[in-house]
Amino acid sequence: MSANMHIFENPSALAEALADDVGARLAAAIAARGTASLAVSGGSTPKAFFRSLSRRELDWSKVTVTLVDERFVPPENDRSNHRLVADNLLKDGAAEARFVPLYQAAETAEAAAAIASGRTASLGAPLDVVVLGMGTDGHTASFFPGGTRLEEALDPTTPRGVITMEAEGAGEPRLTFTFSSLQDAGYLVLHIEGSGKKEVLAQAEASGDEAEMPIRAMLRRAASPLQIYWAP
Ligand SMILES: O=C1O[C@H](COP(=O)(O)O)[C@@H](O)[C@H](O)[C@H]1O
Predict the structure, then answer these.
(1) Whose CA is nearest to atom 2 of ligand 1?
(2) Are 84 and 49 within 8 A, CB to CB?
(3) Residue whose CA is closest, atom 1 of ligand 1?
(4) SS3 of residue 141 by DSSP
(5) Distance 10 CA to ligand 1 centre (A)
(6) Hey, which residues does 228 pair with through a beta bridge?
(7) ipTM of the complex
(8) pLDDT at residue 167 is higher than 60
């Protein structure tokens, strides 16, 4: 079992503890530099965590929130990660936070990625907190097995920023921060729930190619220790 494994009795206990830990990191960044940055994942797992975090007492006006990855769909779309964050995180005190979306109303995903790279550069580097998720295929962010630009996304020499990704398991074209943008976050979290994902994590921790299970790049090569939060 990983040295940085945080195990909870249930998803609500996890959501509260992760919100406490992320809130404390953001508060420390604000105290040190006057601002804080947070990149979160989409999908079904982070909803309860988002709701808990939105209630944490912080000077949210000094926090900038963005996404680790996004579908190339407008925020009105049910599958938009922007929409998930707007509905569950950017409320209560956290409504004061600045949100920088990855989706941009551009003609192509490539054009949107270029705009998103420029806009997210204002968050500075490294990011203070990054919360990753993981799919049962071993993807994290939009680093999908078989992804069109997986090699480039995982290459540590690829610059910080947002690139496009297409993959069979991804549905829509995606926008994703590169590995280099995420791996050195001040607090780097992997949030997973359920016995299925615990088994996937165990598989990822065993030997094998990063291309088969891209989460391995974070487990093996991230400059910051990956803090794994899990509940059944
Ligand atoms: O496609 C995505 O899926 C992963 C995992 O989602 P979940 O529904 O299994 O929690 C997520 O981390 C990523 O941000 C999202 O775009």
Answers:
(1) 43
(2) no
(3) 43
(4) coil
(5) 19
(6) 5, 190
(7) 0.96
(8) yes
- Of 190, 89, 178, the C-alpha closest to 130 is 190
Ligand 1 pocket, 147 CB below 6 A?
no
Confidence of residue 2 (pLDDT cuts 50, 70, 90): low
The burial of 195, by beta-carbon neighbours within 10 Å (0-12 exposed, 13-18 middle, 19 or more buried), is given as: exposed
pLDDT band with cut points at 50, 70 and 90 for residue 3:
low
Residue type (1 letter), 129: V
d(Cα 2, Cα 146) in Å, to the nearest integer? 27
Q: Give me the pLDDT at residue 57, please.
A: 97
Rg of the chain over Cα atoms, rounded to whole angstroms, equals: 16
pLDDT score at 196: 98
The answer to whether 67 touches 82, Cβ cutoff 8 Å, is yes
Q: How far is the CA of 33 from the centre of ligand 1 (A)?
A: 31
Residue-range domains of the chain with CATH:
5-231 (3.40.50.1360)
